[in-house]
Write a structure and sequence with these properties.
Largest sheet: none
Strand content: under 5%
Distance between the termini: 33 Å
Helix content: over 70%
Oligomer: single chain
Order of helices and strands: HH
Number of strands: 0
Shape: elongated
C-alpha cells in the first residue's frame, strides 16, 4: 500500500512538472530583468543573484545537465 501512495504522489509531481518548469523560467526572466538595473557594487549582496543561481540550477537538473 505504501508504494501506491508514493506512486500517486509521484504521478502528481510528474503532472505538475511542466507548469513548475515554466514558472521557474518566468522567474528567471524577471530576476534577470531586475538585475540589469542593479548597481554593480551591490550585486555581491543582492539576494536576487543567489535566487537566480538556484533557479537556473533547478532547471539544469530538470534537463539532466547536473
Amino acid at each position: 500500500e505504501q508504494g501506491s501512495v508514493e506512486q500517486i504522489a509521484n504521478n502528481h509531481l510528474i503532472s505538475a512538472a511542466p507548469d513548475m518548469y515554466e514558472e521557474i523560467e518566468r522567474d528567471i526572466i524577471e530576476i534577470e530583468a531586475r538585475l540589469i538595473f542593479a548597481d554593480e557594487r551591490t550585486l555581491a549582496v543582492n539576494p536576487d543573484v543567489a535566487k537566480l543561481k538556484r533557479k537556473k540550477a533547478i532547471l539544469a537538473k530538470a534537463r539532466g545537465e547536473q
